[in-house]
Amino acid sequence: MLQQTQVKTVIPYFNNFTNKFKTLNALSKSNENEILKMWEGLGYYRRARNLLACAKQLVNKCDSRLPKNIEELKNLPGVGDYTANALLGLVYNKPALAVDGNVKRVFSRNLNKEEKKIDFKKLIEKNKKILFSTNRNSDFVEAIMEFGALICKPKDPNCLTCCLKKSCKYFKSNKKIKNFKKKMIKDKNYDIFCYVNKKKQIALAKNSQISFLKNFNMPIIKESNSSIKTQDWKFLKNYKNSISNLKLNINIYYKFSNKIPSSHSWYSLEKNNEFIPNFTKKIFRQVSTLF
Ligand code: SF4
Questions:
Q1: Residues 57, 76: contact at Cβ < 8 Å?
Q2: Burial bucket for residue 242 (CB in 10 Å: 0-12, 13-18, 19+)
Q3: Across all residues in the chain, what is the average pLDDT?
Q4: Angle at CA of residue 89, ends 87 and 94, nearest 5°
Q5: Is the minimum distance from the CB of 157 to ligand 1 under 6 angstroms?
């Protein structure tokens, strides 16, 4: 839940989630719609799907135990190099380091070398005797992340009170590196085509057309200038939306019709039991002005 999301946003979701699913077994018996409903509003829904798939795999194939080696961990849904190392360090106290943005910044500042010029895997391997000279590696993993978040902060690091300042090349250098990565924002233009009917319903299908929100319910959506002839549809409005690193400029079109493609089903604009992502709910709000 904490990937790309602030702690204060996560807390109520985490509490609800752990109250509902008190064991790995309970989570594994849930289903995607239930998990997504509980995740609603937290975004990055792939995390929720992976969590459920991971719980099922652990219960069904791993005897309900978290594997202890990196290759087996990386076979779990949603677990890549970063998470596998975090689990080894935090759960099993093994000499492994989860290299997140905070940790990269601490290393990079200490060396006064830009992050993109550092091979972090090699650096850790080369210095593993020093880094892991502790019996409390799980505390060390947590501590270095917190150190990056609270002391060696992205802007205005607390150098004067920092315990590393004597050895830190950034602190001592007159030519300090600039390390602040700007998030690459991409502008995209999309056309959205909504079948609607007099019962205030909209036709949706599982998205397989665009790269974000895969397999979630959406109307027909295409990058602008696609092959769909917009003259067959009525223009409703233009609006902006953002999702992840995408800034979307959206033209929304509609057509009243009782005939819809076989891949689509009708959904109420007002109330649905099925999980609907916020992106689609925003479309609902635009379309509901027709009624
Ligand atoms: S001295 Fe400053 S730049 Fe160096 S590690 Fe400490 S807080 Fe970061």
A1: yes
A2: exposed
A3: 92
A4: 120
A5: yes
Question: Quick one: CATH architecture of 7-92?
Answer: Orthogonal Bundle (1.10)
Cite the DSSP H helix spans in 70-210: 70-74, 81-92, 101-111, 120-126, 128-131, 137-150, 169-172
Q: Does 3.30.930.10 match the CATH number of domain 101-172? A: no
- What is the position in ligand 1's atom list of the atom closest to the CA of 163? 6
Instruction: Give residues with Cβ within 8 angstroms of 281, minimum separation 6.
Output: none
Is residue 241 classed as helix, strand or coil in its secondary structure?
Answer: strand
Distance between Cα 172 and ligand 1 center (Å):
10
Nearest-CA neighbor of 278 among 248, 254, 235?
A: 248
**Residue 226 pLDDT level (bands cut at 50, 70, 90):** low
Helices (H) and strands (E) in the chain, counts: 12, 7
Measured from the CA of 169, which atom of ligand 1 is nearest? 4
CA of 92 to the centre of ligand 1 (A): 29
Q: 124 by DSSP, 3-state: which?
A: helix
At residue 227 the predicted structure's pLDDT band, cuts being 50, 70 and 90, is low
Regarding the beta carbon of 165 and ligand 1, being less than 6 Å apart is answered yes
Distance CA 236, CA 284 (A): 12
Q: In CATH, what class is 186-290?
A: alpha beta
What is the residue extent of each domain of the chain? 7-92, 101-172, 186-290
Mean pLDDT of 220-231: 78
